[in-house]
Design brief:
Layout lengths: L1 H12 L2 H7 L5 H8 L3 H6 L6 E5 L3 H8 L4 E7 L4 E7 L3 E4 L2 E4 L7 E3 L4 E11 L2 E10 L4 E6 L10 H14 L1 E2 L3
Antiparallel strand pairs: 1-7, 1-10, 2-3, 2-9, 4-5, 5-6, 7-8, 8-9
Length: 178
Amino acid sequence: MATAAASVVTSETGDLRAFMAANPAAVIEEVAKQWSVSPLAVIEALPDGMVRLGPGDGFVAAMNDIAAWGEVTLIVHTEDAIFEFTGQVPRGEVSRGYFNLMQPKGLHGHLRHDNCGAMAFVERPFMGKASAFVAFLNRDGGIMFKVFVGRDANRELRGDQLARFHALAEQFSEARNA
């Protein structure tokens, strides 16, 4: 999947992989717009070792695992706004066609889990610091939302969450060998 998509991006729009190698901290959604590709194509173009892809059918299990991580940052980035929620993601359950986040206040809502086509486990530098996040991608290659590993009092990635992130990536993906 990664190799075919990357070669299409290379032949049709220039060398996106080279661009991302030189700019791994670039905002994925902005690069996608500039290059007229999907955010998934941008994620696939990140340097080797920065991304692992998994199937979208792991959505429910991944979200319920993330619910046990503690305080994280969930980001929804649209063309018109960037919404950030920092706190604990609630557990959810599937009912009436949605994955329903089960709490009455704070982060709650109804997610179209069946529209998740892939999960990307991304570790890369961002704003001068290490970052790690799970991007839930829709079937069109767009980002539904991202969940970032939290930071400690020193603004470093929380070791306990990073271990959970790695375990989740191992469970749902294989390392990309491009």
